[in-house]
C-alpha cells in the first residue's frame, strides 16, 4: 500500500536531516583531538556571557512578534506573549518550518486570538526574521563565496539596497499580500502599519546582533584569530547569514547541520578550522539551552499569573482577553 504523500514527504525530510547530522558528526569526529583541545580553552565567563546573549536574542524576537500581533488587533501582556512564543518556538526543532506557527496558533486560542491571525503573524515573523538576518549577514557573503576582500563593497552595493527595500513597510505589505494569495489564504484585515513593521525590524536586527556577538565572545575566548575585524565580521554577520540560510532549509530542524557547516566555513577564514568547529559546537549547545530556558521561564511566569490556563474555573481568575484588556496595550 502506497504511503500518503504528506507522510512520504515527512519521512524524506527526516532522512535528509539525519544525513546532514551524520555528515556534521563525521566531520567533528575526524578532527576531534584538535577540536576538544580548543573547547578546553573557553573560559567560564565567556560561557555565561554567551548564554545571556542567547537568552536576550529570543526575548527581542518575541517582542517583535508581539508588536506585529498587537498591530493586527491582538495586544497582549508580555507574560502570555512570552509563554505562547517561547513554548511554540520549540517546534522549530522538528523538521519543517510550520510546527512553531501551528503551536503558537493553538495556544493563542486560549487567549481568544484567532488561529488565522496567529498563523499569519507567525509566518510574517519568520519572513522578517530571514530578511533581517540577511540584512545583518550580507557583509559576510564574500566569506561564504570565498571572494577577495575587494569584493565586499560590490556585494554590499548589490544586496544591501534590495534587503532594505524588502523590509520597507509598503513593499513588505505587498509581499505579504502576494504570499497570502499564492497560499490561497484570505488577505489581512488591514495592512501592517509602518511603525509596527519598523519597530519589529529593529527588534529582529537587535536579536541577530545578540546571537552574533555570542559567537564572537566564544571565538575571542578560544583565540587564534587572524585579526579582530575579520573575526567580528565572521562571527556577527556570519552567524546571521548562516542561520538565515538555515531557516530557509525547511528540511533541517532549526537549520541544524546547515547552519553549523556554513558558519564553520566563514569562521574558518578568520581562525583555525578546529577552533571554528569548537565555537560552532558550543554555539549550538548554548542557543538550544537558551531556547529551553526562555520556554521554561515563559511557561512558569504565564502559569503563575493564570494567563495561559485552559480551565480558569479551577480556583484561578479567567485569563484577560488580550484584544480588549487595556493593560495589554503597549
TrEMBL record:
Main localisation: membrane
- Kindly state which keywords UniProt assigns to this record, in alphabetical order: Cell membrane, Membrane, Transmembrane, Transmembrane helix
Q: Which Pfam families match?
A: LPG_synthase_TM
Span-the-membrane segments of this chain are: 45-68, 119-141, 153-172, 192-219, 231-254, 285-302
Where does this polypeptide localize?
Cell membrane
Q: How does this chain sit within the bilayer?
A: Multi-pass membrane protein
Q: Among the entry's GO cellular component annotations, what is one?
A: plasma membrane
Query: What name has this protein been given in UniProt?
Result: Lysylphosphatidylglycerol synthase-like protein
The species this protein belongs to is: Oryzihumus leptocrescens
Amino acid at each position: 500500500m502506497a504511503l500518503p504523500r504528506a507522510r512520504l514527504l515527512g519521512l524524506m525530510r527526516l532522512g535528509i536531516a539525519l544525513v546532514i547530522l551524520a555528515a556534521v558528526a563525521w566531520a567533528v569526529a575526524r578532527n576531534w583531538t584538535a577540536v576538544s583541545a580548543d573547547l578546553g580553552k573557553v573560559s567560564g565567563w565567556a560561557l555565561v556571557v554567551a548564554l545571556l546573549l542567547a537568552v536576550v536574542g529570543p526575548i527581542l524576537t518575541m517582542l517583535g512578534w508581539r508588536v506585529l500581533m498587537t498591530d493586527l488587533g491582538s495586544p497582549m501582556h508580555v507574560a502570555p506573549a512570552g509563554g505562547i512564543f517561547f513554548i511554540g518556538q520549540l517546534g522549530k526543532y522538528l523538521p519543517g518550518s510550520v510546527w512553531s506557527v501551528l503551536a503558537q496558533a493553538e495556544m493563542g486560542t486560549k487567549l481568544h486570538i484567532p488561529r488565522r491571525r496567529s498563523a499569519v503573524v507567525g509566518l510574517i515573523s519568520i519572513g522578517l526574521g530571514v530578511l533581517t538576518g540577511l540584512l545583518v549577514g550580507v557583509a559576510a557573503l564574500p566569506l561564504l563565496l570565498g571572494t577577495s576582500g575587494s569584493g565586499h563593497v560590490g556585494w554590499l552595493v548589490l544586496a544591501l539596497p534590495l534587503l532594505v527595500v524588502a523590509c520597507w513597510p509598503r513593499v513588505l505589505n505587498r509581499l505579504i499580500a502576494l504570499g497570502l494569495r499564492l497560499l490561497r489564504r484570505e488577505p489581512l484585515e488591514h495592512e501592517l502599519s509602518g511603525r509596527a513593521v519598523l519597530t519589529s525590524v529593529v527588534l529582529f536586527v537587535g536579536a541577530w546582533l545578540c546571537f552574533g556577538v555570542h559567537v564572537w565572545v566564544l571565538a575571542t575566548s578560544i583565540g587564534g584569530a587572524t585579526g579582530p575585524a575579520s573575526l567580528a565580521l565572521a562571527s556577527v554577520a556570519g552567524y546571521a547569514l548562516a542561520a538565515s540560510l538555515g531557516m530557509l532549509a525547511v528540511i533541517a530542524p532549526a537549520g541544524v547541520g546547515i547552519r553549523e557547516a556554513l558558519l564553520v566555513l566563514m569562521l574558518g577564514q578568520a581562525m583555525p578550522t578546529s577552533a571554528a568547529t569548537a565555537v560552532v559546537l558550543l554555539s549550538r549547545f548554548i542557543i538550544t539551552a537558551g531556547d529551553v530556558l526562555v520556554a521554561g521561564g515563559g511557561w512558569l511566569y504565564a502559569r503563575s499569573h493564570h494567563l495561559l490556563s485552559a480551565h480558569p474555573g479551577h480556583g484561578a481568575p479567567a485569563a484577560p482577553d488580550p484584544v480588549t484588556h487595556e493593560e495589554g496595550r503597549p
